[in-house]
From TrEMBL:
The keyword Amino-acid biosynthesis does not apply. SUPFAM superfamilies: P-loop containing nucleoside triphosphate hydrolases. Residues 5-235 form the ABC transporter domain. InterPro entries: AAA+_ATPase, ABC_transporter-like_ATP-bd, ABC_transporter-like_CS, ABC_Transporter_VariousFunc, P-loop_NTPase. GO terms for molecular function: ATP binding; ATP hydrolysis activity. This is ABC transporter. Gene3D superfamilies: P-loop containing nucleotide triphosphate hydrolases. The keyword Transport applies. SMART domains: AAA. Keywords: ATP-binding, Nucleotide-binding, Transport. It holds the Pfam family ABC_tran.
Amino acid sequence: MPTAIRLVKLEKRFRTKYAVKEVNLTVNKGELFCFLGPNGSGKTTTIKMMTGLLEPTAGFVELVGMDIAKKPIEVKKKMAYVPDQPLIYPKLTGREYLEFIASVFEVEDELFEQRMNHYTELFSLKGRLDEYAGDYSHGMKQKLSLCAALIHKPEILFLDEPTVGLDPKSAKILKSLLRQLCDDGMTVFMSTHILEIAEQMCDRVGIIKDGQLITVASMDELKKERGNDSTLEDIFLDLTGDAESQLLVSSMKEEEV
Ligand SMILES: Nc1ncnc2c1ncn2[C@@H]1O[C@H](COP(=O)(O)OP(=O)(O)OP(=O)(O)O)[C@@H](O)[C@H]1O
């Protein structure tokens, strides 16, 4: 299986503090990879280095075989990034925004129309495309940002907390869409706090704690190692939580019963 993403000894230091430390990781083409970790563990910093928005202190990132620091334009043509806070131009309509993104990526008119119709229909945005994007709700902005990311059919899609702000129907649509895109060969790298999503749909999960990647495995591998009745929540808390927070979670579970 060809490699889509390769991180080699990737590090980011802010002043004296390491936000990401010696991360090595390979993600294959067509994989749906979930990146998990507690708040402040280094997920966004890693994604920003992977997408060329932040320069590493050490190490490097290769996407589809190219070093992002050496070939930034070529690499960026092959990827898309949907941040947790959607970045849109408020004075453009939804349609104008998608047209603008398509023009940057030189998408042919016919393909643009097909993809715009397909994705905006899927996310129930088609009837709202002539309104200013600045007047959209948070969830609608998030969906417009997703449609824009898919308009040039990237080989690698990075998503930071993609389901936050989406209603349950849109979240479900997104989950099936991501699975289908990966089955068709796209690679998805996604951070999430929703362990259920990672458990249900990811091929592999990576868990980061204090800037260090502490586990990379499929759900089957994790269960084999930790016992078949373990949930991802148990495993996650076991690997990342301190004893106190685990006790708190257990007592809350007992109270629920
Ligand atoms: N620009 C910055 N300057 C200084 N420190 C930063 C900067 N950006 C991030 N950090 C620090 O780096 C660490 C990792 O932050 P990061 O945003 O990558 O975490 P995260 O795992 O995405 O967290 P969350 O789940 O809360 O979004 C944190 O300690 C954070 O305070």
